[in-house]
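testing teh design pipeline on a random one, pls ignore if ur not involved
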């Protein structure tokens, strides 16, 4: 008989629970309350493929998926859950349709103090201020009025000349707002104060802050500090000397979204953090340099993973880049690690590349706010993001001043 450690036993229980849930989803003659088969419900949600063999399709999060329906992946579920030798099992988040097993597969924690071996203070939730108003004359994205979690739009965002001009305008504004937000980063300022400044600048320019109201997100910008991988909610916590903070800005201007982010230093930052931030930026730059019409999307992931591996950094897998334009999130799915997914870049297409690197574990833990995602071991994480346009000569970065 094999004796399992406490952690090994936990993973074993997780697997058994997941296996049981999958059986209930896979077999069409299993009924739920109301008499409708679970398989029938899943077909309606396009979660099952065609053919005689039924299987559960996994979902991979965009970097701002939240409560929305998740992106479809062609990879089989076991391949996503299988760990490589020497690497901890990778957890993933499923849509709320499968909320009964979400907590088992995607770690959640409300205790943010239990992170051994980290010298700096662990990130703790602060107080979140009320939602800031937007003038009624500023056009809002459809998902704000509907109050429903937005889905992922299938098909790439490909533009005519008018659309390209609009994308350049929204991208330029997003870049200007991001640089302004970065100039505010200093010890003592709260992330809520940064959100207030960002919110005001965006609406002063006649645009809408895309994150506000997206799937219930309560703020106008994401601020992810230290071990926060992404989706940090601005709050009353003051930035401290030595922190690193990613600020993720998206604006909706004239019906088009521009999406960008950057990791900033707060005060005097140690060399370990500086190197992580520098290499993450290099990963983005190298990935953009390989983009051009006809290039396979998977080349982006390989380029990022190759460079991260040289410096022994982890690449977060659960959050991906995405098409962006008239909608916030669309095809394609841009994976930042080595993959075999098909698809090629198209002339006049726009999408984001947004790698997230970690010093330690790539496994995420989601806080109870259902947004904030931190590293499992409390190690630092950094991210950079641009919206790019595929041109005949390669790629044009739209989110730069």
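output:
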């Amino acid at each position: 008989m094999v004796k399992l450690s406490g952690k090994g036993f936990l993973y074993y229980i997780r697997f058994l629970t997941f296996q049981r849930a999958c059986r209930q989803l896979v077999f069409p003659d299993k009924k739920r309350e109301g008499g409708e088969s679970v398989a029938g419900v899943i077909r309606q949600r396009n979660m099952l493929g065609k053919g005689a063999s039924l299987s559960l399709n996994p979902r991979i999060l965009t970097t701002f998926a939240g409560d929305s329906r998740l992106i479809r992946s062609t990879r089989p579920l076991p391949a996503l859950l299988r760990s490589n030798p020497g690497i901890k099992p990778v957890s993933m988040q499923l849509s709320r349709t499968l909320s009964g097993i979400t907590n088992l597969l995607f770690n959640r924690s409300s205790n943010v103090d239990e992170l051994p071996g980290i010298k700096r203070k662990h990130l703790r939730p602060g107080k979140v201020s009320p939602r800031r108003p937007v003038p009624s004359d500023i056009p809002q994205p459809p998902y704000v009025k509907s109050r429903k979690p937005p889905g992922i739009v299938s098909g790439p965002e490909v533009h005519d000349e008018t659309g390209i001009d609009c994308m350049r305008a929204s991208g330029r504004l997003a870049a200007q707002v991001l640089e302004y937000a970065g100039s505010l980063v200093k010890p003592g300022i709260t992330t809520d104060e940064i959100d207030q400044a960002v919110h005001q600048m965006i609406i002063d320019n006649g645009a809408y802050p895309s994150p506000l109201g997206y799937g219930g997100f309560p703020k106008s910008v994401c601020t992810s500090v230290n071990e926060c991988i992404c989706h940090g909610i601005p709050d009353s916590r003051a930035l401290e000397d030595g922190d690193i903070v990613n600020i993720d800005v998206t604006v909706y201007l004239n019906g088009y979204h521009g999406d960008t982010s950057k990791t900033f230093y707060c005060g005097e930052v140690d060399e370990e953090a500086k190197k992580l931030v520098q290499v993450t930026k290099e990963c983005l730059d190298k990935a953009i340099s390989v983009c051009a019409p006809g290039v396979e999307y998977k080349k982006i992931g390989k380029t990022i993973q190759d460079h991260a591996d040289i410096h022994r950094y982890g690449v977060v897998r659960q959050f991906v880049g995405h098409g962006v334009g008239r909608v916030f999130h669309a095809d394609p799915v841009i994976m930042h690690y080595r993959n075999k997914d098909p698809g090629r870049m198209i002339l006049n297409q726009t999408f984001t590349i947004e790698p997230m690197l970690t010093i330690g574990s790539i496994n995420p833990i989601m806080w109870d706010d259902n947004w904030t995602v931190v590293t499992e071991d409390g190690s630092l994480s950094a991210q950079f993001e641009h919206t790019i346009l595929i041109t005949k000569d390669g790629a044009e970065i739209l989110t730069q001043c």
